[in-house]
Amino acid sequence: MKALKLAVAEPSAILRCGIIAVLRRLPAPDVDILEIADISQLTVQLSRHRPDVLVVNPASLGFCTPQQLRVQTGCEGLRCIALQMSVTDAATLNAYDDVLSVYDPVETLREKIMQPVGDAPREERQEPLSAREREIVVCIVKGMTNKQIADALCISTHTVITHRRNIVAKLQIHSPAGLTIYAIVNKLVDLSDIRDTIAEI
Fold it and tell me: Where does the HTH luxR-type domain lie (predicted)?
């Protein structure tokens, strides 16, 4: 099997080396990893090495979109994965093939990185949340317990737990912090509504 060519573009040595260290320990096919610490050299490095996948923080690219990057470098089949470390506008994230949160577990990182090039983009794969599931997400990020959510929505605790499992399955977000980022980015909650909860995470 041909080795996957992966570029990790991140100015922070701690984050860049951390991601690469995790990838090298995964039981996965061969991966050739290109480290890009200097974002000003990103297009040059991509044009020279022509990776299959790029992991990059959208904030590092400024106003450059993944599609513009593909055109500039000639890497038409490049899968661009956003490395989300803070609240990022949903429209910005939608331009990427997938999104990795710093709160994602290792297995999620492996699945997203190793997804075959050419698979359906993230927007088409992800099932939308139902109205009830969105209500429960809001309750979760406000720090409510399963019982409090059940009482507030007039449903059983068992139903709340079932909804929570479905939310995790659809979003592949496994932590309260990650869910909080999702809720803010998708405008389900306002920062002023959950300041106390954020301080506790």
Answer: 122-187
Strands (E), the chain: 4-9, 31-36, 53-56, 79-84, 98-101
Q: Is residue 31 helix, strand or coil? A: strand
- Give the Cα separation of 60 and 26 in Å (integer): 26
Architecture, CATH, for domain 4-123:
3-Layer(aba) Sandwich (3.40)
What is the distance between the alpha carbons of residues 64 and 34, in angstroms, rounded to a whole number?
A: 20
Phi–psi pair at 31, nearest 5 degrees: -130, 125
Give per-10-residue mean pLDDT for the chain (201 aa).
85 86 72 91 94 92 88 91 80 87 78 65 58 92 93 94 88 80 80 60 50
User: Given the structure tokens 């592949």, which residue do they identify?
Assistant: 172
pTM for this one?
0.57
pLDDT value of residue 175: 79
